[in-house]
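Thread: quick sanity check before group meeting

JM: Hey all, I'm pulling together slides for Thursday and realized we never actually wrote out the predicted structure for the chain we discussed last week. Dropping the sequence here so it's in one place. If anyone has concerns about the input, flag it before I start.
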Amino acid sequence: MTVVADPALTGLQVYIVGGAVRDALLGLAAGDRDWVVVGTTPEEMVAREFIPVGGDFPVFLHPRTKEEYALARTERKSGRGYKGFTFYTGADVTLEEDLKRRDLTVNAMAQSMAGDLIDPLNGLKDLQSRVFRHVGPAFEEDPVRILRLARFAARLTDFSVAPETLSVCQRMVSTGEVDALVPERVWQELSRGLMSDKPSRMLAILLESGASARVMPEWHHTVRVAQLVDAAASLPLSARYALFCLDTQARAELAKRLRVPTECVDVARLLPVVLAGMARCTPEDTLSLIETCDAIRKPERFDLLLETASLVEVFDAQWWRLSLQTVLSVDAGAAAQTASEPARIKQVVRAARLAALSDRSD
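JM (edit): ok, ran it. Output follows.
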């Protein structure tokens, strides 16, 4: 990983840490870089025109690149959940102390501005062995780390989870530490995992650790769901979420608990309706399904529903697309003018659409 000299950083002990180091060693495309600054103070960072943005602990935006630079810190558990920490960011905190507070050994490596690797916890060895291993006892103080571990497994699909790390996750569930997770954070990690290469690996870890039963008890896992979320690699989040909860009866309750975005909720609600309506192809049934899905106003969403449904069952999706085009081709304005009174406009337009579908099927 090449680091270009930067006047704003001259004289500072600055290191790239975490995922950027891990991914560079794996030969993966570079994403956002996380930086740690050692041996300095918030006042000096401001004097260098860095912009303070941190809440719980000092984080600064670079004056030019706007990348985030955090002061090296240690932490002490002071309460329940992932926010229950007291942070210390004195100038005497070392890089090694900062790395020891991180979650997994493969995420606890750093790189100096000169390109040297700092690896006090043998992260490189675990990286080469393709193993996710927790850094130490502090792992179980933060329940978000279970979700992150599961998400990493969905992204780095050739990695395994160390047995002792899975045991720690199970203990975090049994002691109730995982119950402190807030819905927004669960959804944040779940949605990112669903958009990864193999979401079924995330689901497997959440199941095996017991976390899924606590953070989303309404969700029902099946082998079919695991296979479908992996097969949806080309689809957007709303479709993947719909497949994720396809076999869940309490979809509305699950969405409410996790505060799922409306677009995802709607596709998840309509997918079973589309699947149930595929076999009924009379003009009336066809138009009813199109209306139920609001496909006349939202044809792109209907097309996504058809594409998603095609992963579940074999049917003639193109026939349905052409049926929608037939309905959309009807001149609703012209049909409305034939209505004898305003109250009959909706009925007349619908009749015209039914007639167009009947003509197509003849």
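AS: nice. Residues 193 and 254 are 17 Å apart (CA to CA). The radius of gyration is 26 Å.
JM: adding both to the slides.
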